[in-house]
Amino acid sequence: MNRHAHLPNWIVIALGVFFLAPTMPSPLFAQEHRPDRHTLLLLHCNGNLLGAQDEKPTQVQGVAFEAGIFKKGAYFAAGNQVYFPSAGNINSIEGTLEFWIKPRWNGNDGQGYVVLRFGVGGGMYFAKDGANNWRSILNRFGVGNPEVGVALNISDWQAGQWHHAAFTWKSDLLKLYLDGRLRSEFQVPVPLNVVNEAAFQLGADFSSFYLDAVIDELRLSDIVRSAQEIQASFVAGLGISSLTLQPNPIVLFVTEEKTPTLTAETNLGTLDIPPESAKWRSSNPAVARVDENGRIAGISRGRAKIIASLKGVSASAIVIVIPLPLSAGDLEVMYKDSLRVWWLEGVPRVETAVKLQDKENPATYALEQNYPNPFNRSTERSRRSPETAISFALPQAGHVAVKIFNVIGAEIRTLAEGQYQAGYHRVHWDGKDKNGNAVASGVYLYQLQAGTFYEVKKMALLR
Q1: How far from chain centre, in Å, is Cα 155?
Q2: CB atoms within 10 A of CB 184
């Protein structure tokens, strides 16, 4: 292709996106945990509470068994009383507690529910508290050493939904993981107590704060499990039928890096998957490299395909790498290559705002990729000037500013500024500056600032 060939003033694009219905594989479940040398207690909960290494509870009352993540799970009802010997089954100085949980309560109900209690004053405690926090407490009540813990608000939990939870503890650091992701941690400034109680309790705090939830695949370890091990525990419980990478295509400058979002259709619904859980590869590492964590780096001008694979299912995204400064030829290649991705690769060109509006309310702030991108005269209905749409979501009302900048950071135009209600919004840019003058072809940055939320994305204008 002649890099300096002149583009026509208009291009009629009649795109039809065809969705081929792939054969959906049966959910792929990994095997349940197998005990290793650091496993103290492992409960598969398949019709009983016997440990995988023949550990036996000293008391079981008020527990029923129903469908779990793997086979069966144990439902800890009101009034349950479940105790295990502590010797050889739990370590108060260093360890990991991980499990799947399906509560019969909403996370915002203001009630407390206990997963595990070991000791009382100076002991260990893992629970949801009355302030709707998922939390660990060590050196409980400050007996022996000052109380320490780690917490995460779970007001968005819904009854009947499964979650994977993990807590780790050691003399220097506490961590809390939820659904495979590290969500909270705390540097421990004091020693952790040695707890000498003969037994620990699951599902209640003596005769109160009953768990009222189904538990499956509970494991206690004598070490701090790594983030990779905990992610593997989460992914093991998922039946994955399809994967998606977003955005697609991914446009990078040379030396720029980006980690795409990996989403899976699973037996538990649509979930974001930790990118580190997948295996990644690039079709052309000389153009775009990808590391084991899914982080893509632009190496040189060109086009590559990035593939993520997990549990026998794969997804791909096209990566277009462009240099700076840009020539007219670079923009032409970028524009035509994007169209080729949308047309030949079958990537849907549905505006994200439309997808967002399928939901009742946005849960988080979001700034979406502008559409179309790149944009030029051929994409504007009147064909007199270019136009692109910028969509964003607000979980609550507040002051909003949407601005356009060039690549050296000079402000070009303010598209929106003022009070906006919670919901989904869209503004348009016609390729003009604040004085009404048409700006030159090139790459531009657009910024959303809403309260403390701040995000910048890039787009390309081609005249």
Answers
A1: 17
A2: 19
Average pLDDT of every residue of the chain: 85
36: which residues sit within 8 A by CB, 6+ positions away?
Answer: none
- pLDDT tens for 148-170 read 999 999 999 999 999 999 999 99
What confidence score (pLDDT) does residue 346 get?
A: 42
Higher confidence at residue 2 or residue 438? 438
Q: How far apart are CA 302 and CA 287, in angstroms?
A: 6
Q: How far apart are CA 82 and CA 55, in angstroms?
A: 13
Gap between the Cα atoms of 51 and 41, Å rounded: 6
Residues 333 and 368 in one domain: no
What is the tens place of the pLDDT at every residue in 307-354? 999 999 999 998 988 776 555 555 555 555 554 444 444 433 333 333
Residue 230 lies in a domain: no
pLDDT, residue 330, reads: 58
Q: What is the pLDDT of residues 420-458, one digit of tens each?
A: 999 899 999 999 999 999 898 888 889 898 987 878 888
Of 172, 198, 224, the domain-final residue: 224
Domain ends where: 334, 349, 364? 349
CB atoms within 10 A of CB 158: 11
Q: pTM for the full model?
A: 0.70
Q: Which residue has 């859980």 as its token pair?
A: 277
Residues 77 and 216 in one domain: yes
Q: In terms of domains, do 175 and 109 share one?
A: yes
Strands (E), 173-236: 173-178, 181-187, 199-202, 213-221
CA 179 to chain centre: 8
Distance CA 131, CA 233 (A): 28
- The answer to whether the CB of 365 falls within 8 A of the CB of 453 is yes
CATH number at residue 391: 2.60.40.1930
String of b and e for 368-377 (b: at least 16 CB within 10 Å)? bbbbbbbbbb
Q: Does residue 333 share a domain with residue 369?
A: no
Cβ–Cβ under 8 Å, residues 113 and 213: yes
Neighbours of 1 (CB within 10 A): 8
Which residues does 226 contact at the CB level (< 8 Å), separation at least 6? none
| Inter-residue contact 185 to 174 (CB < 8 Å) | yes
Confidence of residue 246 (pLDDT cuts 50, 70, 90): confident
Domain that holds residue 427: 353-463
User: How many structural domains is the chain composed of?
Assistant: 3
Residue 1 contacts residue 333 (beta carbons within 8 Å)? yes
Q: Where are the alpha helices (H) located in 284-394, listed in sequence order? A: 328-344, 352-356
Nearest to 67 by CA among 81, 47, 41, 51: 47
Which pLDDT belongs to residue 9?
A: 35
